[in-house]
């Protein structure tokens, strides 16, 4: 850059910022500029706060649902897996596999004296299940091992137990998608189960999930010691897709190998898409605030016509005049973006406390755990999101300054100074 170019850049920035923050401005223009900055503050703060809350929701969802969902599954065909102990030993030899556990699962109808409810009944080995999921620490009544004490014990999700109106010590009747042939005809297979435990993870499985022992599963579902498949836990949750793909190539025989991104991937994809759509909607608020700068600069150009003409007669080039008004607009936008960023970060870090304060002030519960599975707004501020918001806001502000700056550069000095 030459000395002349450096001088042009310096005077343009100096004059542009002076226009932005000078006290000797038209009051109406100052009011429009203030409104533009406030709009930018609110837009940026809202976008950062909402993105943080959505990150928190995604994290809560991932942590709670995946606490019951295995990292991967190895499933057999229609006949199940007969030699599952040998297969489990083979899978456990993989250096990135922490544990494996057998399961049998199917949809059933659970009934009590009060209600009927569809559910997913999963037969597990409670000792091995501890190694692949967090169901044991989530028990709020009874223990997971209680399903193995006697045949036909069951552990229910807390919401499922509430819907059925049962507690530990009560009984529920399970109706399975199997048929029993008797001299009187063909009937669905059913059995009474003793409720020996209730778990709560604060997510959707609380509504539909039930567990019995593997021995009870064989008796209920039939089969000669076979299982539907094996649950697999890996060292790294996010490396599970690659690890399960390796197992699919290494395992002998025909097995269906899946990972959590395939079983639960649509849910997390929907959350990600929702985050993108909400971000775009809130970014439109920032865009409106940014393009309010257009009206501010257009009024400034009309107000500063004589100054522009004087600068042009003193040798200022077209790009120099444009640079002045670009700096003028970006000066206003930067203050709004900076204040909005600071406010958004503060809100993101304190949104849970603010929620509790509002609940105490209004005397209402904003988030009922029985409905939303959370009692407060989760927040996870991610700095890449903050940087992306700031950069997008600056880009929109820069685009908003171009037209008024071009209009300012197009002013003919002779026309303005003719009657001066």
3D architecture notes:
56% of the residues lie in helices and 19% in strands. A hairpin with a 2-residue loop joins strand 6 and strand 7. The two termini are 36 Å apart. It has a 6-stranded mixed barrel, surrounded by 4 helices. The chain is elongated and about 105 Å long. The protein has 2 domains: 211 residues, no CATH class; 189 residues, no CATH class. With 420 residues, it is an alpha+beta fold.
Please, what is the oligomeric state?
Answer: single chain
The radius of gyration over CA amounts to 33 Å
Mean pLDDT: 81
Helix content: 55-70%
- Helix- and strand-based class? alpha+beta
Number of strands: 10
Largest sheet, in brief, is: 6 strands, mixed, barrel
Order of helices and strands: HHEHEEHEEHEEHEHEHEHHHHHHH
- Number of structurally distinct domains: 2
Strand content: 15-25%
Helices, by number, come to 15
Order of strands, widest sheet: 2-3-8-5-7-6
Basic shape: elongated
Spatial separation of the terminal alpha carbons: 36 Å
- Low-confidence segments, given as residue ranges, are 1-8
């Amino acid at each position: 850059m030459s000395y002349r170019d450096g001088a042009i850049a310096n005077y343009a920035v100096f004059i542009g910022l002076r226009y932005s923050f000078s006290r000797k401005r038209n009051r109406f223009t100052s009011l429009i500029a203030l409104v533009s900055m406030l709009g930018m503050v609110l837009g940026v703060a809202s976008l950062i706060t909402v993105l943080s809350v959505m990150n928190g929701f995604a994290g809560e969802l991932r942590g709670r649902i995946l606490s019951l969902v295995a990292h991967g599954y190895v499933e057999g065909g229609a006949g199940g897996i007969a030699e599952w102990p040998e297969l489990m030993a083979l899978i456990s030899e993989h250096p990135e596999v922490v544990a494996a556990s057998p399961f049998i699962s199917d949809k059933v109808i659970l009934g009590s004296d009060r209600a009927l409810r569809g559910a997913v009944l999963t037969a597990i080995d409670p000792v091995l299940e501890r190694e692949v999921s967090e169901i044991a620490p989530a028990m709020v009544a009874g223990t997971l091992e209680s399903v193995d004490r006697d045949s036909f014990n069951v552990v229910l999700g807390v919401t499922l137990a509430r819907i059925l109106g049962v507690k530990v010590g009560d009984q529920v009747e399970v109706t399975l998608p199997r048929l029993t042939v008797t001299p009187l005809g063909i009937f669905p297979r059913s059995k009474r189960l003793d409720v020996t435990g209730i778990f709560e993870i604060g997510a959707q499985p609380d509504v539909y999930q039930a567990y019995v022992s593997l021995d009870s599963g064989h008796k209920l579902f039939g089969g000669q010691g076979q299982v539907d498949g094996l649950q697999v836990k890996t060292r790294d949750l996010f490396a599970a897709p690659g690890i399960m793909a390796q197992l699919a190539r290494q395992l002998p025989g025909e097995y269906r190998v899946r990972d959590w991104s395939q079983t639960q991937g649509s849910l997390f994809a929907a959350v990600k898409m929702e985050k993108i759509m909400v971000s775009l909607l809130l970014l439109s608020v920032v865009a409106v605030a940014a393009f309010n700068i257009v009206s501010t600069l257009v009024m400034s150009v009309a107000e500063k016509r004589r100054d522009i003409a004087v600068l042009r007669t003193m040798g200022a080039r077209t790009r120099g005049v444009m640079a002045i008004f670009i700096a003028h607009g970006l000066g206003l936008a930067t203050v709004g973006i900076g204040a909005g960023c600071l406010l958004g970060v503060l809100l993101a870090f304190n949104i849970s406390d603010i929620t509790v304060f509002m609940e105490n002030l209004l005397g209402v519960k904003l988030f009922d755990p029985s409905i939303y599975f959370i009692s407060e707004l989760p927040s996870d501020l991610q700095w890449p999101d903050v940087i992306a918001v700031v950069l997008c806001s600056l880009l929109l502000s820069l685009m908003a300054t171009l037209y008024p700056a071009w209009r300012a550069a197009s002013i003919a000095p002779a026309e303005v100074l003719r009657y001066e």
